[in-house]
Amino acid sequence: MNVITGDDGVARCSWGAEPADYLDYHDHEWGVGVADDTRLFEKICLEGFQSGLSWLTILRKRDNFRAGFAGFDIEQVAAFGEGDVERLLADAGIVRHQGKIRSTINNAQRALELIDEHGSLAAFFWPHATFLDEPVTEVPATTDTSTMLSKQLKKRGWSFVGPTTMYAFMQAMGVVNDHMAGCDCWESAERSRRAVAAGVGVTVP
């Protein structure tokens, strides 16, 4: 089943029905429009850490990641050095993968370059948002847009930003709305993402 109605009477995408961590994330975060560069950067990084793991694992460690990576403040992370790498490798509260830790630092440096060029991360990503009149009935793992964004970022020196990672980022940040047909969260997510898109100067149909 693509949608499940919970004991509270709310219809949700089946993946977001349980456990409680997923339910809260599904109802209040996933698919809601985000234009804040810190949160956009955080999500790209966490999706990179998620590669090969479950999102639930990352979600439950998210506060530890935020503590370890200075709240994902882009300028602070970009200035991390070898001492920070060693500190993070010793942090049992996060995923201690040296390649992903170094990737996060590298990507912060690349993010500053992107912001310098485009004004913000939001100004780079949100023009690629898509808007439909009705909810989707199927959800892909990648799209032409996520593949294109992956290629663009890799060309700019980013890492751990494959097409699947980029599509998961787009879904979570509201660049697309993949709440399934019948999910009670679709309309509120759609309103938020249209407002965010308009706020960053994207023409919304």
From TrEMBL:
<dbReference type="InterPro" id="IPR005019">
    <property type="entry name" value="Adenine_glyco"/>
</dbReference>
<dbReference type="GO" id="GO:0008725">
    <property type="term" value="F:DNA-3-methyladenine glycosylase activity"/>
</dbReference>
<dbReference type="InterPro" id="IPR011257">
    <property type="entry name" value="DNA_glycosylase"/>
</dbReference>
<dbReference type="GO" id="GO:0046872">
    <property type="term" value="F:metal ion binding"/>
</dbReference>
<feature type="binding site">
    <location>
        <position position="183"/>
    </location>
    <ligand>
        <name>Zn(2+)</name>
    </ligand>
</feature>
<protein>
    <submittedName>
        <fullName>DNA-3-methyladenine glycosylase I</fullName>
    </submittedName>
</protein>
<dbReference type="GO" id="GO:0006284">
    <property type="term" value="P:base-excision repair"/>
</dbReference>
<keyword id="KW-0862">Zinc</keyword>
<feature type="binding site">
    <location>
        <position position="13"/>
    </location>
    <ligand>
        <name>Zn(2+)</name>
    </ligand>
</feature>
<feature type="binding site">
    <location>
        <position position="26"/>
    </location>
    <ligand>
        <name>Zn(2+)</name>
    </ligand>
</feature>
<dbReference type="InterPro" id="IPR052891">
    <property type="entry name" value="DNA-3mA_glycosylase"/>
</dbReference>
<keyword id="KW-0479">Metal-binding</keyword>
<dbReference type="Pfam" id="PF03352">
    <property type="entry name" value="Adenine_glyco"/>
</dbReference>
<feature type="binding site">
    <location>
        <position position="179"/>
    </location>
    <ligand>
        <name>Zn(2+)</name>
    </ligand>
</feature>
